């Protein structure tokens, strides 16, 4: 078959791109090696910036985020055993939405099904190529065993941090920028009441912890661990001991405890591959760049990429042809590096590096103090965390 746009990946980036293109009459085919159920049940971050939330509603994906999501007008930075609230509304007149990425995915997958989009989940033996021609291809075996070939005008790699599409750019034509971190996150769900009304990002000599939420009775939490840590080594009792140790302080704050439901070690790094476009191939979302999770930029950045890309592809499929593709990277990359910086900055400011000295820890507290105690610092964090206004330079 043929399609104007073939999209490798049916996570939020790939599906939102297909949705945006579908609205202007451009039909795409998405494939994903994961089943719909696998994607739906893989926990990811839960913070959506206001513009991205509004886009889900305004482009007709769904308004469920307004009903099932929760508006968060601020965030808590905790260090030295004390909480410091940063009020986003006061400083930048914006909020974020707590709405799990899995729900964003469900809304997008439902919208594609409702609108008659073609999405193949659970494919195998994917092959992609011919991206320096005007007819790139995507071949795959669908879940029912049938082999398919899609010839397209444009091939989009929205296939996540283990992208195969990014390898279509020859080594001599690409640069990969990355940074590893000497720690990881131990993530878990717990059946417990909320410990605080908003998210709590905690710095302590015992490491970082983040208290996030899912519902009134289920909470999402993370604490800093060794990248080689095994989840089996952590009983509920040991997890809570660690969490309470990290958040403890003179204000008496504690985590509300409950049974621990799911445990995973999340390794992370910072990564960017440039260029984001090569011939008729375009990379979007994690395929082009990944960020450490601190600050929840990953999904928001991916959604920004595909907003730019949808406009560019609309022009390219229309009268302008391939020359329109030149506008993709300039439109997307600035935010990529801003988000790289913010995610890196939050990560280094809040985690205790292995072997950190007392000087290092106190310097971090000085940095945190500069953020929470000055209007400029609070405004800076609020602006970065809620997403940047797209028209500002
Ligand atoms: C969540 C994850 C993050 O990485 C973050 O910065 C905020 C929230 C979450 O899972 O809810």
CATH topology title of the largest domain: FAD/NAD(P)-binding domain
What's the β-strand tally? 21
Determine the N-to-C terminus distance: 43 Å
Strand content: 25-35%
Q: Write down the Rg.
A: 21 Å
Total number of helices: 11
The major sheet is characterized as: 8 strands, mixed
Task: Domain count, please report it.
Answer: 2
Considering DSSP H and I runs of 4 or more, what fraction of the residues is helical?
A: 25-40%
Shape: globular
Q: Determine the structural class based on helices, strands and strand pairing.
A: alpha+beta
The CATH architecture name of the largest domain reads 3-Layer(bba) Sandwich
* Hetero compounds: 3,4-dihydroxybenzoic acid
Low-pLDDT residue spans: none
Q: Compute the average pLDDT.
A: 97
In the CATH hierarchy, what is the class of the largest domain? Alpha Beta
Q: What's the name of the CATH homologous superfamily of the largest domain?
A: FAD/NAD(P)-binding domain
Considering the chains and any ligands shown, give keywords for the structure.
393 residues, alpha+beta, FAD/NAD(P)-binding domain, D-Amino Acid Oxidase, Chain A, domain 2, 2 domains, 8-stranded mixed β-sheet, 7-stranded mixed β-sheet, 21 strands, 34% helix, globular, binds 3,4-dihydroxybenzoic acid
Please describe what this structure looks like.
This protein has helices at residues 12-23, 36-41, 50-58, 64-68, 88-92, 101-114, 236-247, 298-317, 328-350, 358-373, 375-385; strands at residues 2-8, 28-31, 47-49, 70-72, 74-79, 82-87, 96-98, 118-120, 124-129, 137-141, 147-157, 175-180, 184-191, 200-202, 209-213, 218-225, 260-266, 269-274, 277-278, 281-283, 289-290. With 393 residues, the protein is an alpha+beta fold. It has 2 domains: 2-46 and 100-180 and 269-350, FAD/NAD(P)-binding domain (3-Layer(bba) Sandwich); 71-98 and 182-267 and 352-393, D-Amino Acid Oxidase, subunit A, domain 2 (D-Amino Acid Oxidase, Chain A, domain 2, 2-Layer Sandwich), CATH 3.30.9.10. The strands form 4 sheets. Strands 1, 2, 8, 9, 10, 11, 19 and 20 form an 8-stranded mixed beta sheet that branches. Strands 6-5-14-15-16-13-17 form a 7-stranded mixed beta sheet, sandwiched between helices. It is globular and about 65 Å long. The termini are far apart. Residues 45-47, 199, 210, 212, 220, 293-296 line the site of 3,4-dihydroxybenzoic acid (DHB). 3,4-dihydroxybenzoic acid binds at residues 45-47, 199, 210, 212, 220, 293-296.
